[in-house]
Prior knowledge:
Layout: E1 13-14, E2 35-37, E3 44-45, E4 48-55, H1 64-80, H2 86-90, E5 99-101, E6 107-110, E7 114-115, E8 120-125, E9 134-136, E10 157-162, H3 171-187, E11 189-204, E12 209-223, E13 231-238, E14 241-247, E15 267-268, E16 271-278, H4 290-309, E17 312-321, E18 324-339, E19 341-351, E20 354-363
Antiparallel strand pairs: 1-12, 2-9, 3-4, 4-8, 5-6, 6-8, 7-8, 10-14, 11-12, 11-18, 13-14, 15-16, 16-20, 17-18, 19-20
Helix pairs in contact: 3-4
Amino acid sequence: MTSLYRFAFTCLYPITLVGCQITSIVEKEPTSSVEAPCWLQAPVQSNQVGFIGTAAPFSATQNGSLIASRKRALVRLLEHYAISEIDIELSKVTHDSKSISLENGQVVYFSDPHITADTLYSYASTSALTTNKQCQSVECDFSQCQPSWLCQNNHNSVIGVSYYTAFAHQQIPMSAQNAKILAGYLSQARVNVKEQLRESYASDAQSQSKYALNLSRQGDVSAQKIEQPILMTNSCTYGATLFANYSLPTQQEVPLSTPINWRERQEFEGRSIVLGNFGEDGTIAPDNLLSSAIKFAIRDALVELAKIKGIEISSDTTLVQNEGRYFLNNTYYTIAQTVNGSLLDIQINYKDGFPNVYVWLLEGS
Protein backbone atom coordinates (compact mmCIF):
# COMPACT_ATOMS: atom_id res chain seq x y z
CA MET A 1 0.00 0.00 0.00
CA THR A 2 2.37 2.58 -1.12
CA SER A 3 1.89 5.82 -2.92
CA LEU A 4 0.67 6.70 -6.28
CA TYR A 5 -0.18 10.03 -7.88
CA ARG A 6 0.15 13.68 -8.51
CA PHE A 7 -1.43 16.49 -10.47
CA ALA A 8 -1.57 20.28 -10.94
CA PHE A 9 -4.44 22.04 -12.77
CA THR A 10 -7.16 24.55 -13.66
CA CYS A 11 -11.48 24.70 -12.89
CA LEU A 12 -15.73 26.69 -11.85
CA TYR A 13 -18.45 24.33 -12.60
CA PRO A 14 -19.91 21.47 -10.59
CA ILE A 15 -17.69 18.44 -11.06
CA THR A 16 -18.98 15.11 -12.26
CA LEU A 17 -16.88 12.22 -13.42
CA VAL A 18 -18.70 10.16 -15.97
CA GLY A 19 -18.49 6.56 -16.96
CA CYS A 20 -20.56 3.46 -17.36
CA GLN A 21 -20.37 0.41 -15.19
CA ILE A 22 -22.57 -2.64 -15.14
CA THR A 23 -21.22 -4.34 -12.01
CA SER A 24 -20.03 -3.12 -8.61
CA ILE A 25 -16.38 -2.37 -7.98
CA VAL A 26 -14.59 -5.49 -6.90
CA GLU A 27 -11.01 -6.21 -6.06
CA LYS A 28 -8.57 -6.61 -8.90
CA GLU A 29 -9.74 -9.10 -11.46
CA PRO A 30 -7.24 -11.68 -12.75
CA THR A 31 -5.62 -10.55 -15.97
CA SER A 32 -3.25 -12.34 -18.29
CA SER A 33 -0.23 -10.48 -19.61
CA VAL A 34 -0.40 -10.04 -23.39
CA GLU A 35 1.83 -8.37 -25.94
CA ALA A 36 0.82 -5.23 -27.80
CA PRO A 37 2.63 -2.44 -29.67
CA CYS A 38 4.81 -0.53 -27.21
CA TRP A 39 3.11 2.74 -28.17
CA LEU A 40 -0.20 1.48 -26.75
CA GLN A 41 0.90 2.00 -23.14
CA ALA A 42 3.71 4.50 -23.78
CA PRO A 43 2.55 6.80 -26.60
CA VAL A 44 5.13 9.43 -25.61
CA GLN A 45 8.80 8.47 -25.40
CA SER A 46 12.08 10.39 -25.46
CA ASN A 47 12.24 10.41 -29.27
CA GLN A 48 8.54 10.14 -30.15
CA VAL A 49 5.37 12.05 -29.33
CA GLY A 50 2.29 10.22 -30.50
CA PHE A 51 -1.47 10.09 -30.10
CA ILE A 52 -3.86 7.15 -29.89
CA GLY A 53 -7.20 6.95 -31.63
CA THR A 54 -9.75 4.21 -31.01
CA ALA A 55 -12.80 2.74 -32.70
CA ALA A 56 -14.96 -0.35 -32.50
CA PRO A 57 -13.26 -3.22 -34.36
CA PHE A 58 -16.18 -3.64 -36.76
CA SER A 59 -17.88 -1.09 -38.98
CA ALA A 60 -20.86 -1.02 -41.32
CA THR A 61 -18.60 0.47 -44.01
CA GLN A 62 -15.47 -1.11 -45.42
CA ASN A 63 -12.34 0.05 -43.53
CA GLY A 64 -14.57 2.40 -41.55
CA SER A 65 -13.07 1.47 -38.19
CA LEU A 66 -9.49 1.99 -39.35
CA ILE A 67 -10.29 5.38 -40.84
CA ALA A 68 -12.26 6.45 -37.75
CA SER A 69 -9.45 5.51 -35.36
CA ARG A 70 -6.85 7.31 -37.50
CA LYS A 71 -8.99 10.42 -37.64
CA ARG A 72 -9.42 10.43 -33.86
CA ALA A 73 -5.68 10.08 -33.37
CA LEU A 74 -5.14 12.91 -35.86
CA VAL A 75 -7.58 15.19 -34.03
CA ARG A 76 -5.58 14.72 -30.79
CA LEU A 77 -2.38 15.56 -32.70
CA LEU A 78 -3.84 18.66 -34.32
CA GLU A 79 -5.23 19.92 -31.00
CA HIS A 80 -1.90 19.36 -29.27
CA TYR A 81 0.05 21.34 -31.87
CA ALA A 82 -2.73 23.97 -32.17
CA ILE A 83 -3.16 23.31 -35.89
CA SER A 84 -6.37 24.72 -37.39
CA GLU A 85 -8.35 23.61 -40.45
CA ILE A 86 -9.09 20.28 -38.78
CA ASP A 87 -11.78 19.32 -41.28
CA ILE A 88 -9.40 19.81 -44.21
CA GLU A 89 -6.73 17.64 -42.59
CA LEU A 90 -9.22 14.91 -41.65
CA SER A 91 -10.40 14.66 -45.24
CA LYS A 92 -6.92 13.43 -46.22
CA VAL A 93 -7.08 10.29 -44.07
CA THR A 94 -7.49 7.00 -45.94
CA HIS A 95 -7.15 3.33 -45.07
CA ASP A 96 -4.38 2.56 -47.55
CA SER A 97 -1.92 5.40 -46.87
CA LYS A 98 0.18 5.43 -43.71
CA SER A 99 0.99 9.13 -43.95
CA ILE A 100 -0.56 12.45 -44.91
CA SER A 101 0.92 15.91 -45.54
CA LEU A 102 -0.64 18.73 -43.58
CA GLU A 103 -1.27 22.18 -44.98
CA ASN A 104 1.69 23.54 -42.99
CA GLY A 105 4.05 21.05 -44.64
CA GLN A 106 4.35 18.65 -41.73
CA VAL A 107 3.91 14.94 -42.35
CA VAL A 108 1.81 12.77 -40.04
CA TYR A 109 2.54 9.05 -39.90
CA PHE A 110 0.06 6.35 -38.91
CA SER A 111 0.79 2.95 -37.44
CA ASP A 112 -0.65 -0.36 -38.49
CA PRO A 113 -3.79 -0.94 -36.44
CA HIS A 114 -3.72 -2.95 -33.24
CA ILE A 115 -6.97 -4.90 -32.91
CA THR A 116 -8.42 -6.61 -29.84
CA ALA A 117 -11.79 -8.26 -29.36
CA ASP A 118 -13.48 -4.94 -28.61
CA THR A 119 -11.22 -2.10 -29.83
CA LEU A 120 -9.18 -1.04 -32.85
CA TYR A 121 -6.24 1.25 -31.97
CA SER A 122 -4.30 3.57 -34.27
CA TYR A 123 -1.28 5.71 -33.49
CA ALA A 124 -0.36 9.02 -35.14
CA SER A 125 2.90 10.97 -34.87
CA THR A 126 4.91 13.58 -36.76
CA SER A 127 7.84 11.14 -36.52
CA ALA A 128 7.92 8.01 -38.62
CA LEU A 129 7.55 4.73 -36.73
CA THR A 130 10.83 2.89 -37.12
CA THR A 131 9.82 -0.31 -35.34
CA ASN A 132 6.81 -2.50 -34.67
CA LYS A 133 8.26 -3.64 -31.36
CA GLN A 134 5.84 -5.48 -29.09
CA CYS A 135 5.78 -5.03 -25.31
CA GLN A 136 4.11 -6.85 -22.44
CA SER A 137 0.98 -5.19 -21.11
CA VAL A 138 1.68 -3.05 -18.04
CA GLU A 139 -0.25 -3.71 -14.85
CA CYS A 140 -0.52 -1.11 -12.10
CA ASP A 141 1.15 -2.32 -8.91
CA PHE A 142 0.14 0.02 -6.10
CA SER A 143 2.20 -1.77 -3.44
CA GLN A 144 5.44 -1.40 -5.43
CA CYS A 145 4.49 1.92 -7.03
CA GLN A 146 5.06 0.47 -10.49
CA PRO A 147 5.20 1.82 -13.09
CA SER A 148 7.20 4.62 -11.53
CA TRP A 149 5.03 7.44 -12.93
CA LEU A 150 2.32 6.41 -10.46
CA CYS A 151 4.23 8.14 -7.68
CA GLN A 152 7.12 10.14 -9.11
CA ASN A 153 6.97 13.77 -8.05
CA ASN A 154 6.17 15.35 -11.40
CA HIS A 155 3.46 17.83 -10.51
CA ASN A 156 2.86 18.84 -14.10
CA SER A 157 0.78 15.73 -14.74
CA VAL A 158 -2.52 14.19 -13.76
CA ILE A 159 -3.82 10.65 -13.80
CA GLY A 160 -7.12 9.85 -15.46
CA VAL A 161 -9.01 6.74 -14.41
CA SER A 162 -11.66 4.90 -16.39
CA TYR A 163 -13.54 1.69 -15.68
CA TYR A 164 -15.63 -0.16 -18.29
CA THR A 165 -17.37 2.27 -20.63
CA ALA A 166 -20.55 1.67 -22.60
CA PHE A 167 -18.33 0.96 -25.59
CA ALA A 168 -14.86 -0.42 -24.88
CA HIS A 169 -13.14 1.86 -27.38
CA GLN A 170 -14.27 4.91 -25.36
CA GLN A 171 -12.18 3.99 -22.30
CA ILE A 172 -9.12 6.05 -23.28
CA PRO A 173 -11.17 9.18 -24.17
CA MET A 174 -13.07 8.77 -20.89
CA SER A 175 -9.80 8.66 -18.93
CA ALA A 176 -8.81 11.96 -20.56
CA GLN A 177 -12.15 13.52 -19.63
CA ASN A 178 -11.80 12.40 -16.03
CA ALA A 179 -8.18 13.64 -15.90
CA LYS A 180 -9.32 17.12 -16.93
CA ILE A 181 -11.94 17.11 -14.19
CA LEU A 182 -9.41 16.21 -11.51
CA ALA A 183 -6.98 18.75 -12.96
CA GLY A 184 -9.62 21.42 -12.61
CA TYR A 185 -10.19 20.61 -8.96
CA LEU A 186 -6.53 21.07 -8.16
CA SER A 187 -6.08 24.21 -10.21
CA GLN A 188 -8.80 26.20 -8.49
CA ALA A 189 -11.73 24.98 -6.47
CA ARG A 190 -14.47 26.90 -4.70
CA VAL A 191 -15.42 25.39 -1.34
CA ASN A 192 -18.80 26.33 0.15
CA VAL A 193 -19.46 23.96 3.03
CA LYS A 194 -21.21 23.97 6.39
CA GLU A 195 -20.20 21.43 9.03
CA GLN A 196 -21.71 20.55 12.38
CA LEU A 197 -19.63 18.85 15.05
CA ARG A 198 -21.67 17.46 17.94
CA GLU A 199 -19.95 16.20 21.06
CA SER A 200 -21.96 14.66 23.89
CA TYR A 201 -21.32 13.01 27.23
CA ALA A 202 -23.96 11.23 29.30
CA SER A 203 -23.95 9.52 32.71
CA ASP A 204 -26.84 7.72 34.40
CA ALA A 205 -27.70 6.71 37.96
CA GLN A 206 -25.67 3.51 37.63
CA SER A 207 -22.60 5.62 36.89
CA GLN A 208 -22.41 4.34 33.35
CA SER A 209 -20.92 6.89 30.98
CA LYS A 210 -21.24 7.29 27.22
CA TYR A 211 -19.34 9.64 24.93
CA ALA A 212 -20.31 10.36 21.32
CA LEU A 213 -18.83 12.51 18.54
CA ASN A 214 -20.67 13.15 15.28
CA LEU A 215 -19.62 15.22 12.25
CA SER A 216 -22.01 16.13 9.44
CA ARG A 217 -21.20 18.12 6.31
CA GLN A 218 -23.36 19.87 3.72
CA GLY A 219 -22.28 21.98 0.80
CA ASP A 220 -20.47 21.94 -2.53
CA VAL A 221 -16.98 21.95 -3.99
CA SER A 222 -16.81 23.27 -7.55
CA ALA A 223 -13.92 23.82 -9.94
CA GLN A 224 -12.84 25.51 -13.13
CA LYS A 225 -13.09 23.80 -16.49
CA ILE A 226 -9.96 22.96 -18.45
CA GLU A 227 -10.24 23.60 -22.17
CA GLN A 228 -6.61 23.11 -23.20
CA PRO A 229 -5.60 19.70 -24.57
CA ILE A 230 -3.73 17.30 -22.32
CA LEU A 231 -1.24 14.73 -23.54
CA MET A 232 -1.48 11.04 -22.64
CA THR A 233 2.07 9.80 -21.98
CA ASN A 234 1.69 6.39 -20.27
CA SER A 235 -0.93 3.97 -19.04
CA CYS A 236 -1.37 0.80 -17.03
CA THR A 237 -4.31 -1.37 -16.10
CA TYR A 238 -5.65 -2.65 -12.80
CA GLY A 239 -8.13 -5.38 -13.61
CA ALA A 240 -10.67 -3.70 -15.87
CA THR A 241 -9.66 -0.18 -14.80
CA LEU A 242 -7.38 1.99 -16.94
CA PHE A 243 -4.96 4.44 -15.30
CA ALA A 244 -3.50 6.93 -17.79
CA ASN A 245 -0.87 9.57 -17.07
CA TYR A 246 -1.51 12.94 -18.75
CA SER A 247 0.85 15.85 -19.17
CA LEU A 248 -0.77 19.22 -18.46
CA PRO A 249 -0.46 22.45 -20.45
CA THR A 250 0.67 24.48 -17.43
CA GLN A 251 4.37 24.58 -16.62
CA GLN A 252 3.99 25.14 -12.87
CA GLU A 253 6.23 22.82 -10.91
CA VAL A 254 6.20 22.03 -7.22
CA PRO A 255 9.79 21.79 -5.97
CA LEU A 256 9.30 18.76 -3.75
CA SER A 257 12.60 17.02 -4.37
CA THR A 258 12.46 14.14 -1.89
CA PRO A 259 9.29 12.09 -1.39
CA ILE A 260 10.74 10.23 1.59
CA ASN A 261 8.85 10.85 4.84
CA TRP A 262 7.03 13.90 3.47
CA ARG A 263 3.78 12.46 4.84
CA GLU A 264 5.18 13.02 8.32
CA ARG A 265 5.30 16.74 7.66
CA GLN A 266 2.38 19.12 8.13
CA GLU A 267 3.96 21.83 5.99
CA PHE A 268 6.36 22.18 3.08
CA GLU A 269 8.01 25.56 2.51
CA GLY A 270 5.26 27.23 4.52
CA ARG A 271 2.44 25.45 2.69
CA SER A 272 0.13 22.98 4.35
CA ILE A 273 -0.08 19.30 3.49
CA VAL A 274 -3.51 17.75 4.09
CA LEU A 275 -4.97 14.28 3.90
CA GLY A 276 -8.30 13.45 2.27
CA ASN A 277 -10.10 10.13 2.32
CA PHE A 278 -13.05 8.38 0.77
CA GLY A 279 -14.30 4.89 1.59
CA GLU A 280 -12.65 4.41 4.97
CA ASP A 281 -16.00 4.09 6.71
CA GLY A 282 -17.36 1.70 4.09
CA THR A 283 -18.93 4.44 1.95
CA ILE A 284 -19.29 3.57 -1.74
CA ALA A 285 -19.43 6.10 -4.59
CA PRO A 286 -22.99 6.36 -5.98
CA ASP A 287 -21.84 5.15 -9.41
CA ASN A 288 -19.43 2.53 -7.96
CA LEU A 289 -16.55 4.00 -9.96
CA LEU A 290 -12.98 4.22 -8.70
CA SER A 291 -12.60 7.53 -10.55
CA SER A 292 -15.45 8.94 -8.44
CA ALA A 293 -13.90 7.61 -5.22
CA ILE A 294 -10.70 9.50 -6.10
CA LYS A 295 -12.74 12.62 -6.86
CA PHE A 296 -14.50 12.52 -3.50
CA ALA A 297 -11.20 11.97 -1.66
CA ILE A 298 -9.78 15.07 -3.38
CA ARG A 299 -12.89 17.05 -2.46
CA ASP A 300 -12.42 16.00 1.16
CA ALA A 301 -8.81 17.21 1.11
CA LEU A 302 -9.81 20.51 -0.52
CA VAL A 303 -12.28 21.13 2.31
CA GLU A 304 -9.43 20.62 4.78
CA LEU A 305 -7.31 23.14 2.86
CA ALA A 306 -10.20 25.61 2.94
CA LYS A 307 -10.50 25.16 6.72
CA ILE A 308 -6.85 26.11 7.12
CA LYS A 309 -7.39 29.19 5.00
CA GLY A 310 -10.29 30.42 7.10
CA ILE A 311 -13.57 29.38 8.72
CA GLU A 312 -16.33 30.99 10.75
CA ILE A 313 -17.18 29.12 13.93
CA SER A 314 -20.19 29.30 16.23
CA SER A 315 -20.94 26.94 19.11
CA ASP A 316 -23.33 26.37 21.97
CA THR A 317 -23.25 24.25 25.09
CA THR A 318 -26.23 22.79 26.94
CA LEU A 319 -26.40 21.01 30.28
CA VAL A 320 -29.43 18.74 30.72
CA GLN A 321 -30.63 17.03 33.95
CA ASN A 322 -33.03 14.12 33.51
CA GLU A 323 -32.32 11.01 35.58
CA GLY A 324 -28.71 11.68 34.85
CA ARG A 325 -26.52 14.47 33.55
CA TYR A 326 -25.87 15.20 29.86
CA PHE A 327 -23.27 17.52 28.45
CA LEU A 328 -24.00 18.59 24.84
CA ASN A 329 -21.69 20.72 22.75
CA ASN A 330 -22.51 21.78 19.16
CA THR A 331 -20.02 23.56 16.94
CA TYR A 332 -20.91 24.95 13.51
CA TYR A 333 -18.33 25.72 10.83
CA THR A 334 -19.00 27.88 7.80
CA ILE A 335 -16.40 27.55 5.03
CA ALA A 336 -16.34 29.76 1.92
CA GLN A 337 -12.90 29.83 0.31
CA THR A 338 -11.17 29.48 -3.06
CA VAL A 339 -8.27 27.03 -2.86
CA ASN A 340 -5.90 25.11 -5.08
CA GLY A 341 -3.25 22.51 -4.53
CA SER A 342 -1.03 19.82 -5.97
CA LEU A 343 -1.77 16.16 -5.55
CA LEU A 344 1.33 14.72 -3.90
CA ASP A 345 0.23 11.16 -3.59
CA ILE A 346 -2.65 8.70 -3.73
CA GLN A 347 -2.88 5.42 -1.90
CA ILE A 348 -5.54 2.89 -2.82
CA ASN A 349 -6.43 -0.32 -1.09
CA TYR A 350 -9.47 -2.53 -1.08
CA LYS A 351 -11.62 -3.66 1.83
CA ASP A 352 -14.37 -6.20 1.22
CA GLY A 353 -13.92 -5.61 -2.48
CA PHE A 354 -14.45 -1.83 -2.36
CA PRO A 355 -11.82 0.91 -2.74
CA ASN A 356 -10.50 2.99 0.11
CA VAL A 357 -8.72 6.04 -1.30
CA TYR A 358 -6.33 8.38 0.52
CA VAL A 359 -4.94 11.52 -1.11
CA TRP A 360 -2.33 14.01 0.09
CA LEU A 361 -2.56 17.58 -1.22
CA LEU A 362 0.02 20.35 -0.99
CA GLU A 363 -1.50 23.80 -0.60
CA GLY A 364 -1.00 25.96 -3.69
CA SER A 365 1.63 28.68 -3.47
